[in-house]
Design brief:
Blueprint: H1 9-25, H2 30-33, H3 36-47, H4 62-84, E1 96-100, H5 106-114, E2 124-129, H6 132-146, E3 154-159, E4 176-182, H7 186-189, H8 197-213, E5 215-226, H9 229-244, E6 249-251, E7 275-278, H10 284-292, E8 299-307, H11 318-322, E9 326-329, E10 334-335, E11 341-347, E12 350-356, H12 358-361, E13 369-371, E14 378-379, E15 392-395
Parallel strand pairs: 1-2, 1-4, 2-3, 4-5, 12-15
Antiparallel strand pairs: 5-8, 6-8, 7-8, 9-11, 9-13, 10-11, 11-12, 14-15
Helix pairs in contact: 1-4, 3-4, 4-5, 5-6, 8-9
Length: 399
């Protein structure tokens, strides 16, 4: 699941063509092209190490919007397409999608690329963002990619400042079958001290209510955030709040038990729920821009959560139907003692350490779902736990 070779051939072909299409849709005058790497580097700093110093309307600046469209957009599309191709999000003719904080329509574009089965299905998409230039640029690029008028998707660009403290339904928007928020909430919780989980929890409470109130009862809600520790904590708290609204998490979670990454309980262990994908086979122009901007791109990392329809029954959760122990792999492979190798995982028993011989452990990747129905996991004697993480040790031969 964690390499571009795993993408379908058509999806990979479209992703490889993105830099050329972006250059055609948003041509840079030669006198501005030389400044592109420095603009990319500056925007990267604002999006990472200097998050607190950026304004909420940073994409309204032409140089930052250009840097985003030429560099960050294609990288984000790569990352989302790897994830979306494996998520079961049912949509049909007439379904409404609400994309909160959509920026330049990143999620909707990724959905179109990764789900060819939906391209000819009439959908109504509400893209909500405070930044009109970003929305306009995203709509222009989506039209270029999807042949514009020929696409049956009705795209509504709605300029509105989303205040998560006001969790009522956004005016003039129908309740949706899919509500998503990609890289939106980090702009709110970035400034919360990492040792203040209560304030982070309150942000998750509002975020969950905001998304829930835009959605039909049978809707799916999708959130993706940068794969940093604060994001992992937020996603864990968001999952808890969705459960209170009777919306069970269906991915990446394999169970409805308490999250092992609850920041109120996991105070000493420096781990968080996130997934890493290898950035191989990226277009040459993207690699060149990375080098010129001095931003190494070896892996793409994110934290995400997909919740399902409102349900009062635990039996409705996908894990309840399999009758098997399922483990979501949440780490890279690493070496252990006695010539063994390990990967951390999450299951109904909490955090586990999967162990095995190297050739077995290399067959699974970060984000993989390991089903042990026909390959019963063997837990260490006396409930032995990993001294470093506290994870329950599980040995299994992965075939």
């Amino acid at each position: 699941m964690n390499s571009f070779e795993k993408l379908p051939a058509e999806t990979r072909q479209i992703l490889n063509s993105l830099p050329a299409l972006i250059n055609k849709t948003f041509p840079l005058p030669s006198r501005f092209r030389g400044a592109l790497p420095s603009d990319i580097a500056e925007l990267s700093r604002l999006l990472t190490s200097q998050r607190g110093g950026r304004s909420l309307s940073y994409l309204s600046r032409p140089n930052f919007l250009s840097a985003y469209m030429h560099y960050f957009l294609p990288w984000n599309l790569f990352r989302l397409c790897i994830l979306l191709k494996d998520l079961d999000i049912p949509l049909s003719q007439g379904s409404v999608i609400t994309d909160l904080g959509s920026g330049p329509l990143t999620f909707i574009t990724a959905l179109w690329i990764s789900r060819p089965d939906l391209r000819n299905v009439p959908l109504e998409v509400n893209c909500v963002d405070r930044c009109a230039p970003a929305l306009e640029a995203g709509k222009k690029f989506f039209d270029s990619l999807s042949s514009g008028a020929e696409s049956p998707w009705k795209i509504n660009c709605i300029r509105e400042d989303i205040d998560i403290r006001k969790t009522e339904t956004i005016k003039k928007i129908k309740h949706a079958s899919l509500v998503c928020a990609v890289n939106m909430f980090n702009e709110i919780y970035d400034n919360i001290p990492h040792n203040n989980p209560e304030k982070l929890r309150l942000t998750a409470v509002n975020a969950a209510k905001l998304m829930h109130n835009q959605a039909l009862k049978n809707a799916y809600l999708f959130t993706a955030e940068p794969g940093i520790p604060q994001s992992g904590k937020f996603i864990s708290l968001l999952r808890c709040e969705f459960l209170k609204l009777d919306r069970p998490a269906v991915s990446p979670c394999t169970h409805l038990n308490p999250c092992p990454y609850d920041p109120f309980k996991l105070k000493k262990i420096k781990k968080w729920c996130h997934f890493a994908y290898e950035a191989v086979n990226a277009p040459e122009e993207l690699r060149r821009l990375s080098a010129a901007s001095k931003i190494p791109k070896e892996r793409l990392v994110l934290s995400y959560l997909l919740t399902g329809p409102v349900s009062q029954e635990k039996e409705s959760h996908p894990a309840a139907k399999t009758g098997a122990e399922e483990v979501r792999v949440i780490s890279d492979i690493f070496k252990l003692q006695n010539s063994l190798f390990g990967r951390y995982g999450c299951c109904s028993k909490g955090l586990v350490l999967l162990t095995g011989e190297r050739n077995h452990m290399e067959k699974i990747n970060s984000g993989s779902l390991v089903n042990f129905k026909n390959n019963t996991p063997v837990f260490a004697a006396n409930g032995q736990r990993d001294a470093k993480s506290g994870a329950l040790i599980m040995a299994a031969k992965i075939t």
